[in-house]
Amino acid sequence: MPVPEHLYIHVPFCASKCPYCAFYSETETPFADYAELVSRELELRGFAGLRWKTIYIGGGTPSLIRNSQFTIHNLQFIELTVECNPADITPEYAAQLAESGVTRVSVGAQSFDDATLRFLGRRHDSATTRAAVSGLRHAGIGNISLDLMASVPGFENSLREAADLEPEHISVYPLSIEPGTDFHKRGVKCLPDDDTMDQLAAAEDFLVSRGYGRYEISNYCKPGCECRHNLAVWRGADYAAAGPAAASRAGLERRMNIPDLRLWAEALRSGELPRGTVETLTPEEDERERFITGLRLGEGVRPDTNERVGTCIKLVHAGVMRDTGGGVYTLTRRGREVADAVAAEFI
Q: Options 3.40.50.10810, 3.20.20.70, 3.40.630.30, 3.40.50.720; which CATH number does 6-234 get?
């Protein structure tokens, strides 16, 4: 089995559940031994002592876990990203992150329109986000990412306010209403697709004018400031994972832990690995998965079969792909707008 160089840690705790969120989380006080349980899972999986190229701590709300619980013992890394809610980033916490060796912080701003933030069920307002970014800068965090949500009121102004803070990275995701979320149960509707695509196109024009490059469909950065963890995953690298509902990839094997915090913790406290699901792909399925993921990247894909070359040529004629030369094809702006439909052509 390949030895992974990248690690994802899922922290499922949230102070409250956002009405649009479909990720696994629990609204309860973080376990005092959560970091120890993560370390135990990594040890039981044979990953103790590895030097990771990247670690990404996501959630949930990792910033609910303070420094005494936060440090995962004996981890080594090149890039360490932590997702944070702006409401949790005090000057003291920002300093703790820096002292813990965090190199990159992803801030869930979502919007700079206070009415929209209330609609989205967020715990912060726009002033809190600005103060959070200032605190992180003062603490010495040199790589900050802001998450922004499109398809909501005030998006254009939020883009301007986000760029004015000069983060190294900005992620732009349209609001989607997923089954099982509170928004879905309440019948909340998104903007029409054409309006959303207009917003995303305007976002690209604006962010490029401010010095950001679109290196993945939803992600922009200043030169050299790509999220190294996500980029590795999108390029098809293997990665380990720990935490309830955390998913990993190793060769042809795809594994996901049971999405149940208490069962996950009970197993590890008993010295056993948590239950989960395992899927083994065929080499053909694995290669197709990696190819389709690569379609999202600005660097493009290199089709390696006559069938895929033919499909790429067809999509070039349709205006959704571009032949950049040397056998590399990338999505056009229109292709990025309909990326799922483009990907379906290769399935």
A: 3.20.20.70
